[in-house]
Specification:
Layout (H helix, E strand, L loop, with lengths): L1 E2 L6 E2 L24 H17 L5 H33 L6 E2 L22 E5 L4 E2 L20 E2 L3 E9 L2 E6 L2 E6 L3 E4 L1
Antiparallel strand pairs: 1-2, 3-7, 4-7, 4-10, 5-6, 7-8, 8-9
């Protein structure tokens, strides 16, 4: 048996770490002697071993861990922001065109055309500041931009029609489906 240089407990001769304090030890035999000179000679050797085999301080380990986690968090946030900016740019844009009123598209002829899912038809906006909704009712929210402002289209704007529900047309705007009231729109082919 040998004694641990740090806690002084007896540990097995072939141990590399003290099972009590967890410190690394240098293998040596503790001699049972009453000679004070021999004990005094061993004391400096023990002190050197303490300095030589000290474990890193937990405080510096915590600081390093905190620094690494902070850097990882910043990188993660930057990556998410970058990815969201890519998603906004990758969306296909649908062109909106302004249609001049002709005799076939004037308000008086609106009732002649009904929605037909087998034909390619368009919705023409005949009101000012007409807005998109997420669903076919007044209870659904308006489409807004990133600043929270409601998105509206000008009178005469033409959008592809892909569906009809009660008093609502379903249209494509910027590659996504939204609803517009029939009170402010009409169909053209």
């Amino acid at each position: 048996m040998v004694k641990c240089n740090h806690c002084g407990r007896n540990i097995p001769y072939d141990a590399n770490l003290c099972p009590y304090c967890g410190r690394s030890i240098k293998q040596f035999h503790q001699k049972d002697t009453t000679d004070e000179e021999n004990q005094n000679e061993e004391q400096p050797e023990k002190q050197e071993q303490e300095v030589e085999y000290q474990m890193p301080k937990a405080k510096s380990d915590k600081k390093l861990l905190f620094f690494i986690l902070t850097v990882l968090a910043v990188l993660l946030i930057a990556g998410l922001i970058y990815r969201s900016s890519l998603n906004d740019d990758d969306e296909p844009e649908t062109k909106t065109t302004v249609v001049k009123e002709t005799p076939s598209t004037k308000t008086g002829d609106q009732s002649k055309i009904t929605y037909n899912p087998n034909k390619k038809q368009y919705v023409v906006v005949n009101g000012e500041g007409v807005r998109f909704r997420f669903g076919p009712s007044m209870n659904h929210k308006f489409l807004t931009n990133e600043k929270g402002a409601q998105i509206s289209v000008k009178k005469g704007t033409r959008l592809q029609c892909v569906g009809e529900t009660d008093n609502w047309f379903q249209v494509i705007y910027n590659g996504k489906k939204y609803y517009m009231s029939k009170d402010y729109t009409y169909l053209v082919e």
